[in-house]
Amino acid sequence: MTTFSRDVEFQTLDGLTIRGALYPAPTRGPAAIITPGTTQFNCVKEMFVPEVAEQFQLAGITALIYDPRNLGLSDGEPRNEVDPMKQVSDYSDALTYLRTLPEVDPDQIIFWGQSFAGCVALCAGALDKRARMVVSICPLLDFELTPEKFPKVLAKSMADRESRAAGNPPIFLPVLTEDGVNPAGLGIGADKEEFDYMVNAKKYGAARHENRTTLQTYYKLIMWQPHGIMKYMHQMPVLMVIPELDQISPPEQQYSLFNTFPGPKKAHVSMGKGHLNVLSGPEFPDLIKMQVDFIQDILAGRTGRYINDGHSNGTAATAGA
């Protein structure tokens, strides 16, 4: 089977048009909502996730990828302003859209996200029980600014609010500086290879990516409390992929969150992988197969192996290359 996609769009509850691509499976069945994330939280749909969508399509799972609001081809102003709570809501609007498509079983929809979007997907799954499960790849969980930067960013964001109220354009900051660090003090960074990809994403095929966000993005991140939302996960099945060498979202933080989920769950450790390369390399097909196996098990009601059995903190854990 040859992979293919078609351009699609859907409406959000607050009236924006979100644009993306649908990779329809050959027969009616499950579907996954897939959004980009990784170390930058303003990635567009051409970054990282098309290969995942193609592999899901080949496995009989329809996949929807899209540009998050304010980014890429999707509507929303100011451009490159990231609002995590709005993105959580947009997952639900994407699900509502998928439920109208003839290719999709409306009761078999999966929330999927990586890094920043991995955290957003978990929050969406905690709130929207129409989803059948969440697949979260190396979720980014710490959005604290450094003590030195925190008061400065807040003060500048208030000045920016006054300036924008007076009709001036928003203030923008690069997500990563030339030193590979976040100028607002968010605990993300990049090594030489990661930095090259992020700041040169246009030449790698992501023509609409910009290495910048509005200053108000950080105000919204400060207000966001994802752990308070994820406590409502209840019996939602969760698959988490945890890179062994993740230096951006520490594996111990990911494990700690995973162990709070009471429902069917699986933690898969990607051995020798870091935050950015977890979805690349010769191990990628096996990683996709593991995800597809989990999805098929949950949809078929084969949850016994993923239920808390009192061992290893009640997790079903596997290690992979």
Quick take:
The chain has one domain: Alpha/Beta hydrolase fold, catalytic domain (Rossmann fold). The protein is 30% helix and 21% strand.
Keywords:
Polyketide_trans_af380; 321 residues; globular; alpha/beta; AB_hydrolase_fold; 31.7 kDa protein in traX-finO intergenic region; Rossmann fold; AB_hydrolase_1; single chain
Write the layout of secondary structure elements.
Elements: E1 6-11, E2 17-23, E3 29-38, H1 50-58, E4 62-66, H2 84-98, E5 104-115, H3 116-127, E6 133-137, H4 150-165, E7 172-173, H5 192-199, E8 213-214, H6 216-223, H7 226-230, E9 238-243, H8 251-258, E10 265-270, H9 284-299, E11 316-320
Parallel strand pairs: 3-4, 3-5, 5-6, 6-9, 9-10, 10-11
Antiparallel strand pairs: 1-2, 2-4, 7-8
Give your account of this protein's structure.
- The protein has 321 residues and is an alpha/beta fold.
- It has one domain: Rossmann fold (3-Layer(aba) Sandwich).
- Helices cover 30% and strands 21% of the residues.
- 46% of the residues are buried.
- Residues 49-282 form the AB hydrolase-1 domain.
- Pfam families: Abhydrolase_1.
- Belongs to the polyketide transferase af380 family.
Distance, first to last CA: 27 Å
CATH architecture assignment name = 3-Layer(aba) Sandwich
Shape descriptor reads: globular
Q: Give the ordered list of helices and strands.
A: EEEHEHEHEHEHEHHEHEHE
Identify the CATH class: Alpha Beta
Strand composition percent: 15-25%
What is the total domain count?
A: 1
The residue-averaged pLDDT reads 89
Q: In order across it, which strands form the biggest sheet? A: 1-2-4-3-5-6-9-10-11
